[in-house]
Amino acid sequence: MSFLEKNEILISKYNRFLIFLFVALFFVENVTRYKHILFYLMIATALIYLCIDTKNVLKTLNNKVLYLVLLFSAILYITISYSSIPSVSIKAINNNLLNYGILSLSVLFPILLYKENQKSISSLLLISFTVSLIVVLLIELYRYYVAYHNGVLPFTTYDFRHVSDALVFFFPIIPILWYLLPKSKLVYFYLLSVVFLFVLLGTLSRGAWVAVAAAAIIFLCFKRPWKLIGIGLGIMVISLVVLKTIYPDVTKKLFYKLEQTDSTHRYQNGTQGTAFELIMDKPIVGYGFGDKIYHEKYNSVVKNNPTWTFRTSIGPHNIWLYTWFGAGIMGLISFGLVFFAMCYSSLRGIFHSTSQSKIYFSFMALLISLVSFYLVRGMFEQIDLKPLGILLGFLIAMMGHNPNEQKEKTSHE
Q: Can you give 34-51 as a three-state secondary structure string?
């Protein structure tokens, strides 16, 4: 009997705990040192498994989605050869792919979870997402508390926008908890929902609001929690009416953002419009990957374009245009292939696991988070590519197992 087999239960707990802690801290600021420690531990552990059980580990990595990730990664690295600032491109690509990014997490999660079944991986995903969201919300409440004692009231500043990404990314777990929590514990669901709504409104980020609304609509395509919808809308309307009535001056910015109908200079001659103009000069190969390259290019030609709104670059505010600008049409296509392959695999997982709630909702969480974060929010902001690695890692790990594996194993025993 091998070492792995002798200590299977302990090793399983260790693997899941590593991933749980890593996901829980992923969006937390000022803990980079601890995230790196966890990341290096995952690498070391994965290398050990790869050496001890090479055949089974490689079997887990035999996945079409991972092959598309490798294709996307290869195309990004090719852009270094013609980048205007190669050192910037190398740093940006390594950060997004390797430094607990898309490629590294796509490989590490499946290796660490290669002996787990789908039910176990699903439980880990659901718990990780729940705890991560709670951690983010608690940190934000503390920041609001500190800001209040410094004379800064909620809804009066844009200083809390940074948490938008985490809120959109983890939002799918909230409607899922409505189904998974026992009725006796639904009070925790209501408390979590109210705090989430408060923090979400406090970001004053319309892109985040639209992304969360889109996520809710996608959830409604699979489930019809009419009672939850009624309660949610009721809480939202009552909260907004109370804020508008009691704190009209404090909530001016909030209601301005809620009532605003213009695009905030995103399209023609704005952030995305000008990005598209730049892309059309080199649509095939792009300019090279990296924020600094985009800013340098924009700032070098803005004087020749007097109609452009922003005289200094603030970025394209669109992750798809950013990818196209940096990696050309092949980079955009390969990124799109990764996205649509993930959507297809998640949908397939949902339809094949309707009788197993945890697996069913885990695939749903992956799909909704992917679409709301990278398609909807990604159309309004230049969001970080790195969180995609978490979704890829869990998805590839779950795809490597048969949903009926645990049932068959239990029956055999």
A: HHHHHHHHHHHHHHHHHH
Q: Which amino acid is at 42?
A: M
The rounded distance, in Å, linking the Cα atoms of 169 and 215 is 10
CA distance 23 to 387: 9
User: Is the torsion defined by CA of 178, 182, 184, 185 positive or negative?
Assistant: negative
Tokens for 76, please give them. 């990004």
Structural domain spans, the chain: 3-262+317-403
Can you give the pLDDT at residue 327?
94
Of the candidates 18, 4, 11, 2, the residue with the CA atom closest to the CA atom of residue 108: 18
Segments of the chain scoring below 50 in pLDDT: 406-413
How far apart CA 48 and CA 3 sit, in angstroms, is 11
Q: What is the pLDDT of residue 410?
A: 39
C-alpha–C-alpha distance, residues 358 and 39, integer Å: 26
**291/302 Cα distance (integer angstroms):** 16
pLDDT of residue 254: 84
Do residues 54 and 47 touch, judged by C-beta distance below 8 A? no
Give the model's pLDDT for residue 262: 60
Please report the pLDDT score of residue 218 as a whole number.
93
**Which pLDDT score is estimated for 409?**
44
Angle made by CA atoms 105, 10, 21, in degrees to the nearest 5: 40
Contact 2, 52 (CB under 8 A): yes
Q: Tell me the torsion sign for CA atoms 276, 280, 281, 285.
A: positive
The residue length of the chain stands at 413
- In angstroms, how far apart are the furthest CA atoms of the chain? 74
Residues 173/133, Cβ–Cβ less than 8 Å: yes
CA torsion through residues 71, 76, 79, 81, sign: negative
Could you give the CA distance from residue 185 to residue 164 in angstroms, rounded to a whole number?
27
List the one residue out of 363, 384, 382 whose CA is nearest residue 27. Answer: 384
* Two tokens, residue 123: 């439980």
Quote the distance between the C-alpha of residue 365 and its chain's center: 11
Q: Amino acid identity of 290?
A: G
Phi, psi of 221 (to 5 degrees): -70, -25
Amino acid at 45: T
pTM score of the predicted model: 0.92
Tokens at 304, concatenated: 């020749």
Q: What is the pLDDT of residue 386?
A: 95
